[in-house]
User: Fold this.
Amino acid sequence: TQARMAALAGVPRSTVERIEAGTRQPSLPTLGKLLAAVDLDMRIRLEGYDNHDDVLDANYAAMTPEQRAATDTGHEAMIALVDAGRAAQP
Assistant:
């Protein structure tokens, strides 16, 4: 429960509630406490910036409405195929 998680982590229950509701982002120290409460460890790895998503976003923004619609339709079809493949696996 939220109360148990908060007690184990040593944070107020309201903190856990707000994080779960998406109205608050935990600080790194708070996130570390929450993870430790469930026997997990936080590891941060610094890497060079990858602008792949920025390029995709810029390309999408430059499309006409028709091109965006076609792209969205293709994307939705791909997701449906992946979902169907997962559902077919035992």
Q: What stands out?
A: Residues 65-88 form the longest helix (24 residues). The radius of gyration is 20 Å. The chain has two domains: 2-37, 52-88.
